[in-house]
Amino acid sequence: MFSTYIEKQTDAMTRHIEMLDALFKHATEGIVVVNKEGVIVMLNPKALELFGFEEGELVNENIESLIPRRLTKKHVSHRNAYLESPHARGMGSSLELFARRKDGSEFPVEVSLSPFKTSEGQFVVSFVIDITERKKQENIIQEANKEIQKLNSELEERVNQRTEELAKAIRKIEQSQEEVMRALKKERELNNMKSQFVTIASHEFRTPLATILSSAALIGRYAKSEEEDKRQKHVSRIKSAVTNLTEILNDFMSIGKLEEGRIHSVPVFTMLPDFCQGLTEEIKGLCKEGQQILFTHEGNSEVWVDKQLLRNVIFNLLSNAIKYSDPYKLIRLNVKADGKIIFIEIIDQGIGIPESDQIHIFDRFFRAQNAGNAQGTGLGLNIVQNYVDLMGGEVSFISTMGKGTTFTIKLPDHLPTN
Fold it and tell me: Residue 170 — very low, low, confident or very high, per pLDDT cuts 50/70/90?
């Protein structure tokens, strides 16, 4: 009977060993057994598959051979601390754990540790799961969550944007009546300007044309040589009338070009004293009897400025000074340049500008109340202001009735920008 009992026990033991061996070999998790020195003593086929090794290659190797090299030193410290007080524990649920394959590639894992003792000593069995697919799914879920958050944010932004658009639309509707009134007012102003233009143009053209016709007719009557002075007098009148017509046409053309945006400031190298001196010589022919233009210059002679625009500005202001000053009056053109700013002053001793008109002096078609019969379109100072603005400068004036007017211009002195 005793032998039968022993046989039964032996059979049971054999079946248990076979079952454990089957579980070890066919487990779906990698199983790695190490001793207290961290040396691998046993692996199941799944572990070999996970790490890419052949049977027998890892036995007696250090467990750190399965750890990424960047983490080896830290792992030795953790292993020693664990073996001082071994206990069952899971790893990877809250930590980012990685293992290393034979080819050096890394993959994320989840590890469970269980210590046990035999007659041969202390051991630790590790259950290793490759969670690469899980990580991929987690990443997909994270990306999906991010996309959902992005879509939610975009939706919220669209809602806010749409709300703002609706608010703007409501404000526009509320302002529509005011805008219509402003448009009607603007249209009336434009119609008034057109009427002013037609009136001024017809008047300003009629006077010089009448002068030209009458003088041309009278010249034909003075056939004798002793009447040369009379002929020259009428030739001068014709020249003056033609000059006036040219100035009027130039004003109209300048306004048209400004409206179309076809005028631009292009600074060029200029010898300022020579430029101004030539301009004063050119305009002296317009001076009344006894009038003089005194030119002074200080500072730098070499400047960068748009010569054509500056010529029109100075010529226009000097023409006004001559036109609205009596004979034998002095007109000053003072110029100073310091390398950064060009300062220009045009000072006359003319009739001055009424204080009530000064606020409108740069308006298009505006003429002061005391302009009298002096020819003009009311465009000159508007053109001056536009040209100075194009050059990046400023124009201002002070005026006293019966004493005269001083126009001051400040222009930047700089190279053209590309």
Answer: confident
Instruction: Give the domain ranges of the chain.
Output: 2-130, 137-229, 265-412
Question: Which of 120-124, 145-149, 217-221 is predicted least confidently?
Answer: 217-221
Question: Cα separation of 293 and 313, whole Å?
Answer: 16
What integer pLDDT is reported at residue 342 of this predicted model? 96
243 vs 158, which has greater pLDDT?
Answer: 158
Separation between Cα atoms, residue 352 and residue 402, nearest integer Å: 6
Options 3.30.420.10, 1.25.40.10, 3.40.50.300, 3.30.450.20; which CATH number does 2-130 get?
3.30.450.20
Per the CB < 8 A criterion, the answer to whether 197 and 189 are in contact is: no
Measure the CA–CA gap between 238 and 244, rounded to whole angstroms. Answer: 10
CATH class for the region spanning 265-412: alpha beta
What average pLDDT does range 24-33 have in this prediction?
A: 85
Does the pTM surpass 0.85? The reply is no
Reduced to 3 states, what is the DSSP secondary structure of residue 268?
Answer: strand
Q: Please state, in angstroms and rounded to a whole number, the distance separating the CA atoms of residues 110 and 270.
A: 82
- The distance from CA 250 to its chain's CA centroid, rounded to whole angstroms, is 38
CB 33 within 8 A of CB 23: no
Length of the chain: 418
As beta bridge partners, residue 111 has: 91, 128
Give, in order, the Cα–Cα distances in Å from 112 to each of 86, 98, 124, 375: 12, 13, 10, 106
Contact indicator for 46, 36 with CB cutoff of 8 Å: no
How is residue 352 written in tokens?
Answer: 């001055």
The contacts of residue 385 (CB under 8 Å, 6+ apart) are 362, 395
Q: Are strands 89-91 and 97-100 parallel, antiparallel or unpaired?
A: unpaired
DSSP classification of residue 297: E
Whole-number percent of the chain with pLDDT over 70: 76
